[in-house]
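Action item from last week, closing it out:
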Amino acid sequence: MSRNTAVSAIVLIRRRIAVKTSHQFGTFTRPLSFFRSNLRNPRIDFSRINDVNDAICLFREMGRMRPQPSVFAYNKLLTVIVKMKHCSVALSVFDEMRRIGAPVNYVTLNIVINCCCLLKRVEFGLCYHWRLHQVWFETQLHNIRHSHSGKSLAGNPVFVLIMQSLMGFARGGRVDDALLLLPEMIAKGISPNVVTYTTIVQGLCDVGRWKDVQDLLDEMTNRKISLNAFTINVLVDAYCREGKVKEAEDFVAEQNICPAMVTYATLINGYCLLGTMNKAQQVFDCLVEKGLKPSIDCYNSLINGYCKNGNVVEAWRLFLDVPRKCLERDQFTYNIMIHGLFSNDRFADGWKLFSYMEKKGFNPDIVTYNILIGGLCKAGKVSFARDLLHQLPSKGLHPDAGTYKIIIGALYEKGYAEDAKYLLMEMKKNGCKSNGVASVQDKRALQGTAGDGGLNVQKWLLG
């Protein structure tokens, strides 16, 4: 729901609550559809809320009730609104709750912070709510410090709330706020653990702030907090995304704990993306030498790497090796191998593998069909590719922008500008939107094209 819709909702709430009513039960009419039992002891029936308008109407009646409903009832209403995927409205209702003096507790705040995280707009209200309840936090932190001395705080609701705030800041790109919250925790007597630090480290890695990452790792060392397997994988993944695969491997070698399998898979994939297949194979072999069983992700990365480097023979050997190692091929394994065969002009083998994939009970997805359509276009069978495109709805699938781009690019390469223009109109009619990124093949196909109807298509393909 948009911010404008949420604002409209809160205006509606205020207008409804502004209606003058007596504090006596007999002077207003309660919509009985939301209540059970009798008027002296009304029970709210949340199961009768069908849409967000019902929720707002119920909130109006709850604000009128005397005595006021319990905090549990308000939390239940907020939860119902969130489950209807109206997080913006839930935040607006919370604002109105504070205005009318409705009761709140740590559960209420957990719901609010969760809404901010779901909206991926941590800046939208999170800092405001934190400051609004600063006094409440001070009291709770004081109680924690004196009643949980020397005990683990992992299950404490306020500690959980602070951790949610940290995750919201870190995942929302507001790592500076997360870094400011860390010393505040320590000052209040709450010691951060490895999960706390890992959450912030991941946020810093996402924005490439490596110096701050190193400072936090040094702080962990000084506080005698050891890295766990998840922390290591977060760092390895970040190094690999930056192309620093050698640094990632050296970092793993320096640790005193055995990395998780996903860490090895990340290293292998990192080297494969760089095209250094000898290093990727070394990591794979090292894994086996240590007596560990490579996962299907390790095999998928290697198969993909060899295919992209034109070594389909080695990729096929690994593909055949998967069941021998008591592993199950997944959809990615088949998609990667079929794409590799098509990319190396082994079209017959690619189609045979596709038939075998279907016999094994796999349901081809749109990625699979995009690969098949791309293979047909590469083989010069554009008309067959178009036929397959129009068969997708009968298979329960809908073409995406990538599907159309493959065929439109091929049509331009063949000089069929009018057909390409028609497909572009069909794509828009079907509600597909371009991601604005053209492949190298698309751009090459457009070179030298001319004619009035081709300009829109060229603009789309080139982004």
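Closing note: The longest strand covers residues 35-36.
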